[in-house]
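A quick aside before the break. I want you to see a complete sequence-to-structure record at least once, exactly as it would be stored in a machine-readable document. Don't worry about memorizing anything.
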Amino acid sequence: MVISLAAKGLTNRDVQAHLAQVCGADVSRQTISTTTDKVLDDRAEQRNRPPHAGCPVLFLDAIHTQIRDGAVANRPACAALTVTAGGRRRILGLAGR
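That is the input. The structure line, written in tokens, reads:
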């Protein structure tokens, strides 16, 4: 939930207040900042990672759903999937806007 709220543009203070109000959780702003920084580091690492040589097939797909964000808007939910040489399927990443 922290990542989702931060991705929507809420400040650490806003996320902290939302978690306290909705979940009754007392989370420090430093914990929220550390969590979001870790995810951003992992995301940058994934973006710079070269494709795996054992994954000859790559699928990119998106589904458009209606999201209420003040007003109803169509937003894509994107997925990147691969099939390895051994036939196993792997999800490389999911993203929403």
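Two observations worth writing down. Residues 15 and 21 are 10 Å apart (CA to CA). The two ends are 15 Å apart (CA to CA). We'll return to this after the break.
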